[in-house]
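Protein data:
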Amino acid sequence: MNVPKMLHSFKYAFKGVKVLLQENNARFHLLATVAVVLGGILLKLSFAEWSATIIAIGLVWMAEAFNTALEKLCDFVSEGYHPLIGKIKDLSAAAVLIISVCAAIIGIIIFLPKILANL
């Protein structure tokens, strides 16, 4: 195992995060992530609740990264409009929507009872 080479490869991952954060939707996810983490701290989530929350956040970010990568690849392959490219982009965006809705449901299950208990 070449540790310096492995650590150097993280440079590309961080470049990818920088590219991702240039996207409007990723900025929204960043704002939502910050809000959820702050809310979790204020509401004192349990270990299990934090685990579910972090998994949900990670899945949304992963889907957004794949969606952005696929959109950029599609734009590279086809400069003009193509119906199949449009469907590919729509499906990729649908994946983000699906996991985002699931994450929101997880958030409601975890946060709503705590919020209501603190009213």
